[in-house]
Amino acid sequence: MSTPDDRPAGDAADGDAGDPADRGADGSASDQPGSRSVTRRVASALGEAADHVGSAASAVGAAASAVGAVVEATARRFDERPGARVRRVRRLGRIALPYLYEAHPDARRRSPRELGVLTIDVADIAGTAAAPAGQRGSDFLPLKPFRSDNWVGRWQRLGQAADKLATLPPIDVLRYDDTYWVVDGHNRVAMALYRGQAAIDADVTDLVDPDRPRSDPPESFASLAEDSRELRAVVNRPLSEPPDASR
Fold it and tell me: How many CB atoms lie within 10 A of CB 35?
């Protein structure tokens, strides 16, 4: 008859069921060595995976909230009444219009590339590229000390042309990454803001970062500009003028 002291050193004492993770599906002790540590590693990996899934779900939720905010803001923009829009744009006039080379000093080292006439979103026009800075508000109108009688007359004529739905020449802008900066045509941008115009025609010059490879050849933009000019020539031709058979 053996005593408890006669048992091998690795045997468990009576009543010690051991770690449940070390037992097989039938309740017997597992024969594989290190099964307890393996199970713990698996459990830890599963816990980390669950944490990653939770983080991804949080990110998706945040993105959905951001998209919802953009959609809501866009809806407010289109539902905005003219009087409310005018008051909002006037408040922008109290803020100095950003100047490209102050906001992005590295724009000076970029190379210009002509893209031709494109239709751009008014909301993507970020400021001015025309010096001197500090003479216009963020409604793109001159600040009151810089509003001459000559400017008042031009602004009135521009409003009359807009009332008649006249075709206005495109503005001139520089494109810096995904934003546009006005070289000429600030009053036309201001008129678009005050009247709730969503898009405007612009002769675009892209400021190309020399450290980035070109994503598209300049020839494609040149042909696009030529097509745009031909289309404008057809649209603006007087009705009495016969079409040019040579084109």
Answer: 16
